[in-house]
Structure formats: C-alpha cells, structure tokens
Amino acid sequence: MFNGIITPIVTPFNQDTKQTINYQATDQLIDHLINNGVSGIFPLGSNGEFTMLSVQERIDFSKHVIKYVNHRVPVYVGTGACNTNEAIFLSKEAEKAGADAVSIITPYFVKLTDNDIYNYYYEIAKAVNIPIILYNIPANTQNNISPKVLDKLAFLPNIQGIKDSSGNLDYINAYLSIIKKHDNLHFLIGSDSKISYAYQHGASGAIAGTSNLLAKQVVALNSSLRANDLEMAQKLQDDLNPLRKVMHQAPVPSVLKSAVTMAHIADVGNARRPICPVTQELSIKIKKMLTHYNLI
C-alpha cells in the first residue's frame, strides 16, 4: 500500500466569498490522477491547505474523497493538529469514514522536545487501528522527528512509515537506515527534487505535490526507477524543475492550483485567503511553464 506515487491533492475552492470547497472539481481532479496511474490519493496535506480548513470541513472533505475514490486506490488522510486531542479526533473520524491510513504532521508553532513528539504519536497510535504515516516537515513546523524517535515509535504496530519533506539528505539517510531495521516501516519521500535519490536508497514511494499537475511524468519517473532505468529517471527527475522553479515564487499552493486550473485538469480555484491570487506577472510565467509541458 505504501508504494508508488501518492498525490497530496490540492483542495479545490469555489470562487464565492467564503471560498467554499468545490466538490465537483475535487472529483475531476481525482479521476484525472487515477486515470494517469497514481497509486494513492492524499487529501489534507500541506498542498491541501489543511491549516486553512475548519475541523468540520476537514471531516467533510475527507469523507467525500474516500467515498468518491471508492477503493480504486488507497486514501491517506492528513489528520495532524497542534494538540493531541484534535489529532486523535480527526484520526478517529478518518478511520470511521474508511481511510486506508492517516498521515500525521508534527504539531507546529510550539517547539517540542523529543519526548513531546513521541508521546503525541504514541497516544494517537493507541487511539486508532489503521496505519499511521508520520509526516516530517521541520521548515514549516519547527519540529523535527528525530531518528531516535522514529526508531522508538517503530515498535507500535500501526506506525508504518514516515514521509519526509525536509529535503535534508542527512535526515533521509538516517530514516532509511532505521527503515531497514523494521519490517513494518516504509519511507515515503516528500521532497519532489529528491525522488530519484530516495528511491535508489530504499524509499518505497513518493508523496509528490508536482503530480497534481504532472501525474503522467511523475508516474513515469516511478516506473523508470523501479526498472532501474536510471538514465530515463534522471531525465524525468530533471524535467520536474521548470514546475518546481515557478512553484517557489509564491506561497504553497497558489502556483500549483493556478497551473492545474490553466491546464484544464480541474477548476480548483485560488489558495484560501490570506494567500493572494497569483500576480499577472507570475501568471505569465505559469503559462510559459505549462507550454514547456505541452499542457496549454
């Protein structure tokens, strides 16, 4: 289940004053991704703007995604929160809705000790039965899951992997060395620039934001790496750079959402306020990038 390309889907919003969730566009995006070969759908990650949604919106959106996917591929629901009780509540709701797994980011804003982080995941793992993927993105949360904490948590049967979006090779290598010690653990790379590196060192899959737009290319990268066609893999890895370069010019996921809409994959709307729509100047750059990929 923890193999291949898993797409952390953007959350589509309508163009109304409250930017309500656009479920029709959600379905169009999901169909596009599955038809292009992704191995899993991950709602409510960083690209899904989970911090911008209310608790009820997160529950409703995850229920809709799980129902619409209808077992075509596994669904991994993001259920992390700043406090343990809310993370447990969201994880239980995802389990009841039929999620295949939950992905849980570390708490954010408050700097935590290793013991705090361990207890956070320990209590959640004891409260639910479905698999849990730890989510490490210290640049955003200021909290890093240390290799020592991962090693300790690995003895809990439903802790089944870690997604690392640090982009730090030291972290990646340390996590991969621990993964090799535990049969139940999987490493999922969350930094799209490091997919090839991570696969060649033992990663089982990638949670790749770029696959919202470039599903076919990222799935082909996965296939090339599995076939050990490293020359083709490097070409496909390098070809993610034009998108990644433009994505970095505005807050996540404003550029990605604009690109998905401009490519007529689905009308996913803008990022939620306070993130502003992309500027006209940036919009021109996005169109140029889409032309590179023959998407417009």
From TrEMBL:
Keyword entries, A-Z: Lyase, Schiff base
SUPFAM superfamilies (UniProt xref): Aldolase
InterPro entries documented for this protein: Aldolase_TIM (IPR013785), DapA-like (IPR002220), Schiff_base-form_aldolases_AS (IPR020625)
Descriptive protein name: Dihydrodipicolinate synthase family protein
PROSITE patterns: DHDPS_2
Pfam families, sorted: DHDPS
Family: Belongs to the DapA family.
Binding annotation for pyruvate: 207
GO BP: small molecule metabolic process
Keyword field contains ATP-binding: no
Active site (UniProt): 135, 163
SMART domains in UniProt: DHDPS
Top-level lineage group: Bacteria
Native source species: Lactobacillus crispatus
GO molecular function, one term: 4-hydroxy-tetrahydrodipicolinate synthase activity
